[in-house]
Write a structure and sequence with these properties.
This protein has about 375 residues and is of the alpha/beta class. Helix content is about 35%, strand content about 15%. α1 packs parallel to α11 and α2 runs parallel beside α16. It is globular, with a radius of gyration of 21 Å.
């Protein structure tokens, strides 16, 4: 297998018919691209666009508000993956805007690294209710489904805000202007769901697609495949992560997802409702559904479906419409220390990644880099 430098030379040797824009869906891919400085060494006619692969960034406003309200319920231990604690809600400055602020007001909010941590906390505190905020994509939903399959402690409930990846790409492709000519699909999702889930991009839209892992070499291999397909006018689905992504994916994980969750239409922050893009607990898990267990505390939240804060362009960044530095607030009102939108919070958010890798509003050619 060639290394990153060899793949880069192959890319530079290609003759492309026109400037090419390639969407990289995954926030993990975007982090590797930024840390390795890949945009700075690619040919000028190749542009990598960060896409809708940050679960923190697309978690809807009403779910953030629900999480804050649940965390403030007396006696509740509220657990969530670390990045979710700092995501701001679009509320008045006098109100609690994040789980971090709720914790500062006395709420028992705890960051966790895996679903097993939530189970352990519930078992260690049998006399208290533990609510687990589940925000993530298929790679989060699958271990949570396995957790459900094994059985939950009676005092553990779930505030489910998990999403499926491909429907957001389908939404882009079904729009008037998709804005990209090639796609790099996420290898970890394909490991679970199978590479075939991305075949629609080629079959329905004729767009070259390659599945990549998370090293610079794997991403450049996928990019080379996509660019070669464009140069040869021969689109197909290429699996460039075959060491882990197998045909049909992980059937056991897929069966577990189907047994524990229903597919539903779901909201994406700043974007709207995307059909069949969300997971919902099966009815037999109603006794562990936080939305049903704490209805009085969440009644007001259901009527507060919010938009992005004024001036925040996170939704356009997430959907690949603009680069992070083109956001009106980037590096001004919105920085990692004072995030306005969710894309500046998460380690998988494009704005946070670009900032961490030195991209500033006044950087030359910043929109391209």
């Amino acid at each position: 297998m060639p290394d990153a430098a060899a793949w880069l030379e192959r890319i530079r040797a290609l003759t492309l018919p026109h400037p090419v824009r390639v969407l990289n869906v995954c926030g993990g891919h975007e982090r590797t691209i930024g840390m390795a400085g890949l945009r700075g060494v690619l040919p000028d006619n190749v542009v990598l666009i960060p896409g809708p692969g940050c679960p923190v960034c697309i978690c809807p406003e009403e779910d953030i508000l629900s999480a804050i309200q649940l965390a403030l319920v007396p006696g509740v231990i509220f657990v969530a993956f670390g990045d979710m604690l700092r995501v701001p809600a679009n509320v008045a400055k006098s109100e609690i805007r994040s789980l971090v602020e709720a914790r500062a007001q006395g709420a028992d909010v705890r960051p966790i690294a895996s679903p097993a941590d939530a189970v352990a906390i519930a078992r260690a505190n049998p006399n208290r209710q533990v609510a687990f905020f589940v925000a993530g994509f298929e790679t989060t939903a699958a271990p949570v489904a396995a957790m459900l399959h094994e059985g939950l402690p009676d005092n553990l409930s779930l505030l489910l805000s998990a999403r499926r990846t491909w429907p957001a790409v389908a939404l882009l492709l079904n729009s008037e202007a998709a804005g990209f000519e090639g796609l790099i699909a996420p290898g970890h999702v394909a490991t679970i769901m199978g590479p075939e889930e991305w075949r629609f991009v080629v079959d329905r839209h004729g767009i070259p697609t390659a599945i990549a892992g998370f090293t610079a070499g794997s991403i450049l291999a996928a990019l080379y495949s996509v660019l070669r397909q464009i140069a040869e006018k021969r689109p197909f689905l290429d699996n460039c992560y075959s060491a882990f992504v197998r045909p049909a994916g992980n059937r056991r994980a897929q069966d577990c997802l189907a047994d524990q969750f229903d597919d539903i239409d779901a909201a994406w922050r700043g974007i709207g409702t995307i059909p069949a893009s969300g997971f919902a607990l099966k009815p037999h898990w109603a006794g562990h559904d936080a939305r049903l267990l704490f209805p009085n505390h969440l009644e007001g939240v259901r009527r507060r479906v919010g938009d992005m804060p004024p001036g925040c362009d996170c939704a356009r960044v997430v959907m690949g419409r603009i680069s992070p530095v083109e956001c009106r607030l980037y590096g001004k009102a919105c920085t990692p220390r004072t995030p306005v939108g969710p894309c500046m919070v998460s380690d998988e958010g494009a704005c946070r990644i670009w900032w961490a890798n030195g991209q500033r509003p006044d950087t030359a050619d910043a929109a391209r880099q």
